[in-house]
Amino acid sequence: MKLIKVIMMVMLSVVGLSANEDLIVYKMDNSDGKITTQTIEDSLTKSGFSVQENRDMNGPFKIQFKETSYEIYNLLTAYHKELAPKLVIEHPRNGIFVPFSVAIYKKKGDKFLHVSFLSAKGLSKITGQSTALYKKLEEETKKAFLKALPNAEVEKLDYEPLATDKKLYTEYTLEMEDDEADDNKEELEMVVEGGLKPIGFVMASFNEFGVDLDEVKNEDFEFYDAYSLCKLKVIYNVSITRPEAGAFAPCTMVIYHKKGDGKTTIIFPNVHNWVSTLAIKDKKLIEILDKAQTDIEALIVNSIE
What we know:
CATH superfamily: TT1751-like domain
Structural class: alpha+beta
Order of helices and strands: HEHEHEHEEHHEEHEHEHEEHH
Strand content: 25-35%
CATH architecture: 2-Layer Sandwich
Helix content: 40-55%
Number of helices: 11
CATH class: Alpha Beta
Radius of gyration: 20 Å
Distance between the termini: 72 Å
């Protein structure tokens, strides 16, 4: 009876460690320091990815908040050069993952280096659509990271996502004919870019993805631009307890005009992703996230009015 009781207790403890399927988190013993943020970037580049940004966040954390609990905390943005155009051509909304985000982190005193990014299920959850390309992107991303982290194991997060009925992307449209789109693009983007700093946002990178579409002979769009945006106050506070949150930061805001649609579209993943996938219940963190969402929405509304 005692043996049966012990086995049952072990089984219950294993069941209790349920994985968060929205995220993939790798961890690897890096006591010797051979794996760096640069070797990880190099692995992605060699595996067919374009790395847009690989930014050390500890410096900004120390400057603005006077401290950090991390030896390493980098936010990396990248997209797969072959799959990204296919994603956007299949559905323009997929551009919010062009580029996608990755967190690379190691806590002070910890021997493990971690890498977190969204799974195919996490991508599908945000856009509300399913495509084989999400799974293919997940596979290629896994391969690239496992080359960089040859002895890595998947880390099981000790929380499940919170259920939500909220739309996980925010979208605005501006009525615009094709022949007006290019002329109005510069003014629209100038107003958006100019309004980021006053509300605490940083443009981590800018990607004129229309060039990539031109390279694959696609002419569906008048233009297609992607902004990687980050608000330091958000990622710093959330990362204290949820370092894997870097899979959402920076977030990609896309501004595009598809020929024949009669509209220019602005779309980006919103903060409800953070709350749901990261199971955030702390009221102060939710207030910080909601403030960021309200501020960016107000900026866009003022830009398109």
